[in-house]
Write a structure and sequence with these properties.
The strands form six sheets. Strands 16, 17, 18, 19 and 20 form a five-stranded antiparallel β-sheet that branches. A four-stranded antiparallel β-sheet has the order 1-23-22-21. The protein is mostly beta strands and 335 residues long. Strand 4 and strand 5 form a beta hairpin. The two termini are 25 Å apart. The protein is 4% helix and 45% strand. The longest helix is centred in the last third of the chain and has 10 residues. It has a single domain, classed as Glycosyl hydrolase domain, family 43 (Tachylectin-2, Chain A, 5 Propeller), CATH 2.115.10.20. The structure holds beta-D-mannopyranose. Beta-D-mannopyranose (BMA) binds next to loops.
């Protein structure tokens, strides 16, 4: 143990992992990915749609294929639980400059589906926003400068502006290594972004010591925008924990509530994780164990919240909670 280590973490009792987890695994996908994870999920005209990340390799040999082979897959569902993956990936961006597109996040605004994504390019890692009407053609609306990613859009315009959460990677100015925080910015048209403000720093999250950033896109409730975030802690005493020789990080999901009129104002945050890696598919046998990465959140009319998350960078899972319990968690500070 090193002296900065966070130690054991457990999930909030308000969360129920679905007994059918994982809801999507490599074996369900017809074109042979080795990992299927970090999906964005939206409800579009009553049907659930999922855009997920495919990575390739050989779990038995513990080898992964070069990054360039990552692509995005598509699945539909009538109930948000049983998913039908389509026969082929939906987006492989063929461009001289682009290495791979990954970690999609979906937000429906005024009836159109927007997708935020990370894109590795030959000149740096960028965050992008595209719009799609059919999940086969993607019109790219904006790309950040390097280094930025984990962008998510709010479902509404607020005071006439669009808003996004993002996680730039300020390596030099934060003391070297990882020390990445969550920022918020706004735009009149989804193309030109400004008004950047620090929203949540690593130091504010008791279960992080490495980085914090957006998770699933925020959902609107009568109390404000409810949003998950990813929180990472590093413990140098950790060793091999997946396919790689060394994996010393743990990714948990946190939850907070942002003001409806001014989303750069945090109204409350759970000081304990919403989901910490505990289930067998989160802690064993994956590419990177101890990774829970929320990417989709749907608020149903019944008050049920479905939270989709990548597990061990290998499969896609779902957990549910009641919206009132999540709001209470944020406003009362945790557990
Ligand atoms: C980050 C991203 C995520 C991934 C996580 C854990 O840097 O690559 O897509 O889930 O690491 O490996």
């Amino acid at each position: 143990m090193n002296k900065f280590a966070i130690g054991a973490l457990t999930s909030s009792p308000v969360i129920a992992r679905h007994p059918h987890n994982p809801v999507l695994a490599p074996k369900d996908v017809p074109y042979g990915p080795a990992m299927v994870f970090n999906a964005g999920v939206a409800k579009v005209q009553g049907k659930y749609v999922m855009v997920f990340r495919n990575d390739y390799g050989d779990p038995k040999k513990g080898t992964i294929e070069p990054h360039g082979t990552t692509n995005l897959g598509l699945a539909y569902s009538d109930d948000g639980l049983h998913w039908e993956p389509q026969a082929a990936p939906c987006w492989m961006w063929n461009d001289e400059e682009v290495v791979r597109v990954y970690d999609p996040r979906l937000t429906v605004i005024d009836g159109r589906c927007y997708i935020c994504f990370a894109v590795d390019t030959k000149h740096g890692l960028r965050g992008g926003i595209a719009v799609t009407d059919d999940f086969s053609a993607f019109e790219v609306l904006s790309l950040s400068v390097p280094d930025n990613r984990n962008m998510v859009l709010f479902p509404d315009r607020i005071g006439g502006q669009y808003f996004r959460l993002e996680r730039p990677m300020p390596v030099y100015s934060r003391g070297g290594g990882d020390r990445f925080d969550m920022w918020i910015g706004d735009s009149p048209d989804l193309k030109y972004w400004g008004g950047s403000k620090l929203l949540l720093s690593v130091e504010q999250v008791p279960f992080a010591n490495d980085k914090v950033g957006p998770g699933a896109p925020p959902v609107r409730t009568d109390k404000g925008y409810l949003t998950t975030f990813h929180a990472v802690d590093l413990d140098c005493s950790r060793g091999k924990n997946g396919w790689e020789d060394r994996w010393q990080k743990r990714y948990t999901a946190g939850i907070m509530l942002l003001d409806k009129e001014d989303p750069s104002r945090i109204l409350g945050m759970s000081r304990t994780p919403l989901i910490a890696p505990e289930a067998p598919y989160e802690i064993r046998g994956g590419f990177r164990n101890d990774v829970v990465f929320p990417g989709g959140m749907i608020l149903e009319e019944s008050g049920e919240v479905k939270i989709y998350y990548g597990s061990a960078d290998t499969v896609e899972c779902m957990a549910t909670a009641h919206v009132d319990d999540l709001l209470k968690l944020c406003l009362e500070g945790g557990r």
